Structures are given as structure tokens and as C-alpha cells.
Amino acid sequence: MNLSLLTAISPIDGRYFKSTKSLRYIFSEFGFLRYRLQVEILWLKKIISMHKMLKLKKLEYKDISFIDDILKNFTIKDAIYIKNIEKKTNHDVKALEYFLKDKFSQSTRLSLISEFIHFSCTSEDINNIAYALMIKDSINQVLLPLWSEIINFLKKYSIQYKNSSLLSMTHGQPATPSTMGKEILNFYYRIQRQFFKLKKIEILAKFNGTTGNYNAHVAAYPYINWHMISKEFITSLNLIWNPCTTQIEPHDYIAEIFGCISLFNTILIDFNRDIWGYISLNYFKQIPIDHEVGSSVMPHKINPIDFENSEGNLGLSNALMHHMINKLPISRWQRDLSDSTVLRNIGVTLSYSVIAYYSMLNGMKKLQINNAQLLTNLNQNWSVLSEAIQTVMRRYNIQNSYEQLKKLTRGKEINQIDLHKFISNLNIPEIEKKRLKKMTPVNYIGSAIQIIEEITA
């Protein structure tokens, strides 16, 4: 059976193929090989730039151009060639080294420096930088743009629905009103914090040999400050240099990144569930798409499948990230290989998140607020004004204010007439009575609109 969208085991490469294509160039096996090839070539060029120090023959411009073209023209055919070498070596990075040496054999001058390919490196020197670059690119090219789109949607709806009064529900029971815009704003503010946090997390890399001490480097060239060379190399890649490691970069920064992403995802799960609930309450209508079917047997159905899909995929992504957060910072002594297979699933982990983000955005585009239902629910719950009335009574030092409103409203259906009658009998200034009587479940929204305007300004 040939691999296709229908035969792929993972829905990432099958059902959700279109949603994850932005990550494929980064995290596929081809992508991983290309990033590692990039690191090998950049390290070799660093070595070449030190030709006087290392007493190497200076290469000509066309030689450097030849080296650059190996990466620039890297193809699937090249990747397959490397994988065929790996079948013999049973070692992926060594296969990449042999691929480069084979390329260099085509040039007499480059053949003279072919032993400086992968010079003094352990495989993890190449891999950790490759992963750092992959993670960096996935954040900048995929995650942050999608997060920004989500944030902009939430901001847009916060402003659009700032005047749409909403009966709040605390413990699932009618509570002090808000507005739909303010409730969406709560998520906007939370998610935006994670956006800025993710941008600030440092992405680290190391380049210090088999146990982090430059042993091989010093053995070959004891008079060179390899610690400084390592720093120059790492920082030239716009990564943060980790000066103190074992054989591996300890992956703490990956745990920090996944901690941030998983919290973003958790907030989004919370949002998906709230919107799902508002759709169920008929606070939002879903715009019907003529050719879509909601149920195989119930023709009337328009299910909130986008928010359900988003919630499910966010849960999968978080489960994998939580494992990586707990696993990756741990390594036996100077190195064990249990992190390797986990790291290979970073793309899988982020793919579930990306699928979820697209689903949530797609669901948001179909929403249409139902102000009539919002007003109906508010007008059926005049008892929510008991909070305002008893608080004003407290201001004027009326004893047992809370208890009086409790007796009037708790477990009872009351209306505007009942409340106005109670207010009329209060021993408070007439101006306060008039002010209280002007309050309705619709306009008792506190500073909700002001908060929206200040936060979104």
C-alpha cells in the first residue's frame, strides 16, 4: 500500500494535511536533514574562516560558492541518498558527514579539507543546533503568526460585542451581568500575555564536543580558545550560547517553550468550551453553510464541531508537551539517547496545536451573536440586581441588607415590579431609589465597556 493522504497512519499527514503543511518543511525528515546539513556547512565555513589559525590553505571564492550550493540545492534525491548511507552506517549524522565528503570529492581543493567536515563534533553538537533553529523557525514562521491572528480575532469580537449584555453564570447559576465583549476580552488578555512571553524565551544551543569540555578540539589545537569560538559560532546563528553542558544541551529552554505553549493551549481550551456553551444557550448562532451536513440523520443540526475539534487537538498537543516538559530536561550522567526519539516528535506535538488553531479560527468566522436570546435570558433574571440593591443599602448602613435581599430573591422568581416595590420602601434618599429603579439586568454591567476600551486602546 502506497503512502497517501488516505493511507497515512497519522491524521496529521492524512486528514489534516493542509493544516500542517507549514510545519512540514521544518519538521519532516527532509527538513531535519536540511537543518543538520546547514549546521555542518556553517561549522565548516567557520573552520575555513580560521584557516590561518588552523594552518589551512585558503580556499577560493568559487570553493565557498560550491559549498553553499550544496545546501541551496539540497533535494529529496539528496535526502534519499543520505538515508541509503544510513542503512549501512546505522547512524544518521555520520551518514550526513559521508554525504558531504562525497560531494567534496568532486573538487580537488575541497578534497584536501574534507577531514574538517564535522571536525571535533559529536552528533549532538549538530543536532541540538538543528533543533534550536527548527524550533526558532516554527515559532517565528508558524506559531506567532497564528497566535497573532487568534489575538486579533478576540480583540475584534471584544470590541464588536462590547455592548451586548450577557447574563453571567457562576457555578452554572445566573449571576451579575457582563457583556459578551468583556468575556471575550478576558481570553484576549490572557492569551496576549503568553504571546509576549513566548517571544522572550531564549533559545539555547551548545557546541562543545562529546562531554562539553572541548576535549577533541584541545587535543588537535591546544593553543586555541575553543570556548570563545563556540560562543562566536552559536551567536552568529542568532541563538543563545549555552556555555556549560554535558554532551547534550539540557533542553530546559524547550521545556520553557512548551510550558508557555501548553498554557496558551489550556486558555484556548477554556475559550472553546465557553463558546461551545454560548452556542448551546443560543447566545451565538452558527452561520449555515449550504453544502455542509450537521448530522447524518438529523437535518436541522449545526454542530459546534470546529470548537470541539480544536479542544480535542489542543488536549493531544498538551499531553505530548507535558511529557516532553517532564522528560527532556532529564539525562542519565553525561548523555543517554532517550531524548532523541522524543525530540523527533516536536513537529507532531506542534502540529496538533496548529490544527487546533485553524479549527478555532474557522469556528469563530461562522459565529453570529443572537442579541434577542441574550436579552430574553437577562429579562428572566431580575434577581441578579439584588447584589446592587443590598450593596447600596449597606452604604446607608441599613442593617441585615444582605439577609433582606436573600429573603426576597433566593430560590424565587421575581420581576421588575417586585424589586421596585422593595426599593420604594427603603429608607434611603429618593435620588438613590430613582437610580436603583433605572437599573435593569441589561444595563447592570458595571465598567465592562470601559475595561474593553482601555485594554484594546
TrEMBL record:
Residues 14-312 form the Fumarate lyase N-terminal domain. GO terms for cellular component: cytosol. GO terms for biological process: 'de novo' AMP biosynthetic process; 'de novo' IMP biosynthetic process. It catalyses: (2S)-2-[5-amino-1-(5-phospho-beta-D-ribosyl)imidazole-4-carboxamido]succinate = 5-amino-1-(5-phospho-beta-D-ribosyl)imidazole-4-carboxamide + fumarate; N(6)-(1,2-dicarboxyethyl)-AMP = fumarate + AMP. InterPro entries: Fumarase/histidase_N, Fumarate_lyase_CS, Fumarate_lyase_fam, Fumarate_lyase_N, L-Aspartase-like, Pur_lyase, PurB_bact, PurB_C. Keywords: Lyase, Purine biosynthesis. GO terms for molecular function: (S)-2-(5-amino-1-(5-phospho-D-ribosyl)imidazole-4-carboxamido) succinate lyase (fumarate-forming) activity; N6-(1,2-dicarboxyethyl)AMP AMP-lyase (fumarate-forming) activity. Residues 331-445 form the Adenylosuccinate lyase PurB C-terminal domain. Pathway: Purine metabolism; IMP biosynthesis via de novo pathway; 5-amino-1-(5-phospho-D-ribosyl)imidazole-4-carboxamide from 5-amino-1-(5-phospho-D-ribosyl)imidazole-4-carboxylate: step 2/2; Purine metabolism; AMP biosynthesis via de novo pathway; AMP from IMP: step 2/2. The keyword Lyase applies. Its EC number is 4.3.2.2. Transmembrane segments: none annotated. CDD domains: PurB. Homotetramer. Residues from neighboring subunits contribute catalytic and substrate-binding residues to each active site. Catalyzes two reactions in de novo purine nucleotide biosynthesis. Catalyzes the breakdown of 5-aminoimidazole- (N-succinylocarboxamide) ribotide (SAICAR or 2-[5-amino-1-(5-phospho-beta-D-ribosyl)imidazole-4-carboxamido]succinate) to 5-aminoimidazole-4-carboxamide ribotide (AICAR or 5-amino-1-(5-phospho-beta-D-ribosyl)imidazole-4-carboxamide) and fumarate, and of adenylosuccinate (ADS or N(6)-(1,2-dicarboxyethyl)-AMP) to adenosine monophosphate (AMP) and fumarate. Belongs to the lyase 1 family. Adenylosuccinate lyase subfamily. NCBIfam families: PRK09285.1, purB. This is Adenylosuccinate lyase. It comes from Buchnera aphidicola (Aphis fabae).
